[in-house]
Automatic annotation (TrEMBL):
Keywords: Cell membrane, Membrane, Transmembrane, Transmembrane helix. InterPro entries: ATP_synth_I. It is found in: Cell membrane. This is ATP synthase F0, I subunit. It comes from the Bacteria. Signal peptide: none annotated. The chain crosses the membrane at residues 7-25, 31-50, 62-83, 89-109. It is a multi-pass membrane protein. One of its GO terms (cellular component) is plasma membrane. The keyword Coiled coil does not apply.
Length: 132
């Protein structure tokens, strides 16, 4: 899970750098803000799940549900705060940052699937545990 969150942050930074070529510094700031509004709550969620992973399955499920609710609430709060107090210069850039952060887990899953397929073709046993 922490690898996925790291990928989110790296992708948001890369997209912000590319976005600065089109929108300039204000656009890059908005991309970063939108992406980090989604990535920071995911970091907290990942840490909560990592801690709950050492407990019973019932405690893990409870931590997952609570963590998911808190993650969504914190993401919504961050986005509302950005809109209220920072007034994005480029709404498209803000949305691009959000979309980039939200698509990172899918990219991680696709790369994992491709990696597993390559290993299967080579006859190598791959580690399929989550977060590895």
């Amino acid at each position: 899970m922490l690898k996925t969150v790291s990928l989110q942050i790296v992708l948001v930074i890369v997209v912000a750098a590319l976005g600065s070529l089109y929108w300039g510094t204000p656009g890059a700031r908005d991309i970063l803000l939108g992406g980090l509004a989604c990535a920071v709550p995911n970091v907290l969620f990942a840490r909560l799940l990592a801690r709950a992973g050492r407990q019973s399955s019932q405690a893990f499920v409870a931590a997952f549900l609570l963590g998911e609710f808190l993650k969504l609430a914190l993401t919504l709060f961050c986005l509302m705060a950005i809109v209220r107090w920072l007034t994005p210069a480029h709404w498209e850039a803000l949305l691009l940052g959000i979309i980039t952060a939200l698509h990172a887990p899918w990219l991680m899953a696709l790369s994992r699937r491709r990696e597993n397929r390559i290993h299967a073709e080579q006859g190598v046993q791959s580690d399929t545990r989550p977060g590895s």
